[in-house]
Amino acid sequence: SFPYDDSGHGTHVAGIALGEGTFWSRPALGVSPRSHLVAVKVLDRQGRGHVSDVIEGIDWVLRRRRDLNIRVLNISFGQPPAESYLTDPLCIAVRRAVNSGIVV
User: Fold this and answer.
1) How far apart are the first and last CA of the chain?
2) Distance in angstroms (rounded) separating the CA atoms of residues 55 and 88
3) DSSP letters of 15-75?
4) What angle, rounded to 10 degrees, do the helices at 51-64 and 89-99 form?
5) pLDDT digits (tens, 9 = 90+) for 22-72
6) Which of 89, 86, 92 is nearest to 51 (CA)?
7) Which DSSP letter does residue 3 get?
8) Which of 57, 47, 48 is nearest to 96 (CA)?
9) Nearest to 97 by CA among 36, 52, 42, 55
10) Residue 87 to residue 61: CA distance in whole angstroms
11) What pTM does this model have?
12) 11: part of which helix (H) or strand (E)?
């Protein structure tokens, strides 16, 4: 399906990472302009969702990391910890991604 961004936040972050263009007639590049983007939507139109949705998105990336050559995972939202990082499900999912070789 065609990727879309309800709030503009994902597009903004993608521009910081992958952007290529000009700003005041000068080249403006993101930090990694030759990279490719794999968009994984885990929040609804209002930017809300459940931690389980985010974990499902991380797991999707882990299952496809080799086929799509995914090496970096950006998770740009805030979530207060519900418990210790050792037992928090989101922290565990992020550790799985890091342990698989993905930079988070």
Assistant:
1) 25
2) 11
3) HHHH-EEEETTEEEE-SSTT--------S-TTS---HHHHHHHHHHHHHHTTTTT--B---
4) 10
5) 888 998 899 998 999 999 999 988 888 999 999 999 999 999 999 999 999
6) 89
7) -
8) 57
9) 55
10) 21
11) 0.87
12) helix 9-18
Q: Specify the DSSP class assigned to residue 10.
A: H
* 51 close to 89: Cβ distance less than 8 angstroms: yes
Q: Among 76, 69, 65, which residue's Cα sits nearest to residue 99?
A: 65
Q: Rg for the chain (alpha carbons), in Å?
A: 15
| Matching residue, tokens 């882990």 | 62
Q: Which residues of 92-101 are buried (b: 16+ CB within 10 A; e: fewer)?
A: ebbeebeeee
Nearest to 5 by CA among 54, 53, 39, 56: 39
